[in-house]
């Protein structure tokens, strides 16, 4: 599967934050989004995921092809680790629960409730949802938040395997994931004048 973004403009809170964004990805490729806080990375990812319409431009990607990993882990606190993944696997029609438990190193926590996990363990479980989605395009917003060095390396390996299997990834991160083959897209040149002048804190919009 390929992905093409052409002359895209996106808005947050009624304010256009980025315009003229264009890039192409082919199977097995990834792009790292860079830019200062509030530069529009989250807004761009939400638009690519089909969670909000673009102001202008086109996205050549079926919404059902993408899995969006947001800041929140999307866990049900009263369910166990396995039950959380089983819930999401059922939504996606997947049987990859065991592979996801192993892939993000949460198999030993399978019977522990999500509410009893540490922040890093919750993050690993949240990322394991990607592995049961079965979707070829991963849109990831600061996926390594709360992860220690070993877990960052673990997740980088998961991303590499995803790309090796023909998947695509668009990742907003300030952390080096050890993906030298990934393109880097600096969003600074695409910020609108009002954004470049006044800034915008997406976390509080």
From TrEMBL:
Superkingdom to which the source organism belongs: Bacteria
UniProt keyword annotations, A-Z: ATP-binding, Cytochrome c-type biogenesis, Hydrolase, Membrane, Nucleotide-binding, Translocase, Transport
GO biological process, one term: cytochrome complex assembly
Gene3D superfamilies per UniProt: P-loop containing nucleotide triphosphate hydrolases (3.40.50.300)
All residue ranges annotated as the ABC transporter domain in the record: 3-205
Enzyme kind, highest EC tier: hydrolase
Record Pfam families: ABC_tran (PF00005)
EC number in record: 3.6.3.41
GO molecular function, one term: transmembrane transporter activity
Record-given protein name: Heme ABC exporter ATP-binding protein CcmA
Organism for this UniProt entry: Tabrizicola piscis
Taxonomic classification: Bacteria, Pseudomonadati, Pseudomonadota, Alphaproteobacteria, Rhodobacterales
Gene from which the chain derives: ccmA
């Amino acid at each position: 599967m390929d992905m093409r973004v052409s002359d895209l403009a996106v808005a947050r809170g009624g304010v256009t934050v980025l315009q003229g964004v264009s890039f192409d990805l082919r199977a097995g490729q990834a792009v790292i989004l860079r830019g200062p806080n509030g530069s529009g990375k989250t807004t761009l990812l939400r638009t690519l995921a089909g969670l909000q319409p673009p102001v202008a431009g086109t996205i050549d990607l079926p919404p059902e092809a993408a899995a969006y990993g947001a800041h929140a882990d999307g866990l049900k606190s009263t369910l166990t680790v396995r039950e959380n993944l089983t819930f999401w696997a059922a939504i996606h029609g997947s049987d990859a629960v065991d592979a996801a438990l192993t892939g993000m190193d949460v198999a030993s926590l399978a019977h522990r409730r999500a509410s009893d996990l540490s922040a890093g363990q919750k993050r690993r479980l949240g990322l394991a949802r990607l592995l049961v989605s079965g979707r070829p395009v991963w849109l990831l917003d600061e996926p390594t938040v709360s992860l220690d060095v070993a877990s960052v390396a673990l997740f980088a390996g998961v991303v590499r395997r995803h790309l090796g299997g023909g998947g695509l990834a668009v990742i907003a991160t300030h952390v080096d994931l050890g993906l030298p083959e990934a393109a880097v897209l600096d969003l600074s040149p695409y910020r609108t004048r009002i954004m470049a002048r006044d800034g915008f804190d997406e976390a509080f919009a």
